[in-house]
From TrEMBL:
Membrane-traversing stretches: none
Family, similarity comment: Belongs to the peptidase S1 family. CLIP subfamily.
Gene3D superfamilies attached to this UniProt entry: Trypsin-like serine proteases
Database matches in PANTHER family: TRYPTASE-RELATED (PTHR24256)
Single GO term (MF): serine-type endopeptidase activity
GO BP annotation list: protein maturation; proteolysis
Entry protein name: Peptidase S1 domain-containing protein
Amino acid sequence: MICVEYLRCTVLIVLTMNICAQKTKSDTMLNAKNVNGPLQNIQKTQSIKQETSLNSNDKNIMELNAYNSVTLLPNRSVCGLLSDEERIFGGESTDIDEFPWLARIKYVLDSGKEVYACAGSLITQNYVLTAAHCVVNLTIKEVRLGDWNTETETDCQGRVCSDPAVDVSVSQVKIFPEYRKSDTFKGDVALLRLQKPIYYSDFVRPICLPITDDTIRQDNSSKSIYWTAGWGKTENENKANIKQKLAISAVPIGDCRNKQPIITDKTAPFVICAGGVAGKDTCVGDSGGSLVKQMTINKTTNWFLVGVTSYGYRFCGSEGRPGLYARITPLLHWILNNIED
Ligand SMILES: *[C@@H]1O[C@H](CO)[C@@H](O)[C@H](O)[C@H]1NC(C)=O
Ligand SMILES: *[C@@H]1O[C@H](CO)[C@@H](O)[C@H](O)[C@H]1NC(C)=O
Ligand SMILES: *[C@@H]1O[C@H](CO)[C@@H](O)[C@H](O)[C@H]1NC(C)=O
Ligand SMILES: *[C@@H]1O[C@H](CO)[C@@H](O)[C@H](O)[C@H]1NC(C)=O
């Protein structure tokens, strides 16, 4: 029996401890409103000033660079760095310093129990970007950065040991205002403001955002190879202790819509569709985690955040069903409008 579930179940699992263990093979969305949880720190944000546009035209890019907050973003000698250019990808476990922008989110359940569920990406010293469905009606206790092996206090890979993980509480949650107003996963992103700024190290580093025309244009190439990473670990499962990584291929939106009819004309521009290989797909990674892509610009290669893990099958084995990721480029205006020093 294959339990086919959507990623949003990650949160449901930890909050209800069993819902997802039941077999549900319909395409009915499990709705987070079934989950009781106090609304915490959720600040309704102002409606976006600019209409977000997918057109990666120069006007759009000039507008992006007009935000003062652009200076808060790490530059390309800081963000999305490759720690070792000779590295060979292909293994399942990450090395200790790979995907250092990945954050784990810890929740407090109504019972008082504390559990990790979703992931997020560090984008500045003060902000983690995650999925909206990872914060709506949930109580976040804190965010953990710099984790690799979830079972050990001090993580070591061979002789390389990382600094202890950094736990930081969240002072403010901002949800993309159009999320779920009309369409389920449109703009499934939220910003978590951290209580204190994070200091970067080899093990805690931000991801680059694609705010230049060179990078925006690359975000939806149907030939893209993306990477996703995470622990995919929940209370009920004995999954990875060590951060896992997986390469997935872009799926052209037309093909994707045949397999994921939930995508509409309206939501298509807000989606990156990727994966769908049996036994792989979204088994690796957590809701709210990063979909990243390497881009080389002016001879320098960095990792860029192009999507946030949003919707897909939590339990795998369903060939040909790609995962859906909230696409970052149409949300950049909102992000830049909502981060502060
Ligand atoms: C959050 O909780 C409120 C109050 O219980 C409910 O009205 C709302 O629909 C919930 N939101 C979501 C997205 O489930
Ligand atoms: C990038 O940012 C770092 C840290 O803020 C700064 O030291 C460095 O000079 C910047 N590099 C460039 C090329 O702007
Ligand atoms: C990206 O998406 C836009 C809008 O859907 C489209 O016009 C453009 O051709 C796409 N670019 C690539 C490289 O696929
Ligand atoms: C790449 O280099 C050119 C020429 O120096 C410069 O105009 C452009 O801004 C650079 N692009 C980026 C993304 O740094």
